[in-house]
Specification:
Elements lengths: L3 E5 L12 H13 L4 E4 L11 H15 L5 E4 L5 H13 L4 E5 L8 H14 L4 E5 L1 H4 L5 H7 L5 E6 L3 H11 L4 E4 L2 H9 L4 E4 L6 H12 L3 H17 L7 H9 L19 H10 L4
Parallel strand pairs: 1-2, 1-8, 2-3, 3-4, 4-5, 5-6, 6-7, 7-8
Helix pairs in contact: 1-2, 3-4, 4-6, 8-9, 8-10, 9-10, 10-12, 11-12
């Protein structure tokens, strides 16, 4: 349903942590102008964990209104409570989102049966395309391929964002690629994942290098390995530098360096530590975006 370079967009904030909707409007235009193929609003990179329900839905609605149908908007609606995830998914559907992205329930470590029932209940109750999201390094919860297979035939479940290993992505393509779109959730392995049959990447790097990520995905989807590898070589230092501290700390600093957003970030996250700033700046220069 969705293909190519999809940005997990940052949430602009002022120094006091207040949401900056004018800067968010600029970001939406920036991504449309540079060919990004979908915007994921209020995901992990958008600091969803620090937002209350009203802010969460207001941000989704704002992105939808700014996009004006020119680019798909996918709302992050996952939570570690099934009731909360259901509420966010329902509200984001009413706000006009084109799809929802639902991270696995974090911290409470459900069983595979619990994960199946969690996703099945939301898919049964909300008629919107839904993308599963597995990121065990953050959630202490791993959505196994066999559970994904059980969910793959539900008409409202259209994809999975997998942020673990290339081997897992390739396994998901083999098992479910004919029924679900598989997306890389890790920029560092996205090129090889797409060459292996994934349909795109939900990207942190696209926040600062949207055109280059669009070109990389297009080359990989076309099966052009040589061009994909050449493009990825230029971006590889950026993929790495944007995780020198916890996401979205480095990427928010980087987007601020481009002059697109103010430097605000909400506790418990803090601004990028000074020792890491030269490496991120150098990676931006190598990627030819600064």
């Amino acid at each position: 349903m969705f293909r190519g370079s999809m940005v997990a967009i940052v949430t602009p904030m002022r120094m006091d942590g207040a949401l900056d909707f004018e800067a968010l409007a600029r970001l939406v235009e920036f991504h449309i102008e540079n060919g990004t193929q979908a915007i994921i609003a209020v995901g992990t990179t958008g600091e969803s964990a620090t937002l209350d329900f009203a802010e969460h839905i207001r941000l989704v609605r704002w992105v939808v209104e700014q996009a004006k149908g020119r680019i798909p908007v996918i709302a992050g609606t996952g939570a570690n409570s099934t009731a909360e995830a259901l509420h966010l998914t329902q509200q984001s559907t009413e706000a006009g989102a084109d799809a929802c992205l639902l991270v696995t329930p974090y911290y409470n470590k459900p069983t595979q049966e619990g994960l199946y029932r969690h996703y099945r209940l939301i898919a049964d109750r909300v008629a919107i395309p839904q993308i599963l999201y597995n990121v065990p390094g953050r959630t202490a919860c791993d959505l196994k391929p066999e559970t994904v297979e059980r969910l793959a035939d539900h008409p409202n479940i259209v994809g999975i964002k997998e942020a673990s290993t290339l081997e897992r992505l390739q396994e998901l393509v083999r098992r479910c690629g004919d029924r679900l779109d598989v997306y890389s959730g890790d920029d560092g392995i996205a090129a090889e994942a797409i060459l292996s049959g994934a349909q795109g990447v939900i990207s942190v790097t696209a926040n600062v290098a949207p055109r280059a990520m669009r070109e990389l995905c297009a080359a990989a989807l076309a099966g052009d390995r040589a061009r994909t590898e050449a493009l990825n070589a230029r971006l590889a230092p950026l993929h790495q530098a944007l995780f020198l501290e916890s996401n979205p700390i480095p990427v928010k600093w980087a987007v601020h360096q481009l002059g697109l957003i103010p430097p605000g970030i909400r506790l418990p996250l803090t601004p990028l530590s000074e020792p890491f700033q030269p490496a991120v700046r150098a990676a931006l220069h190598q990627a030819e975006v600064l």
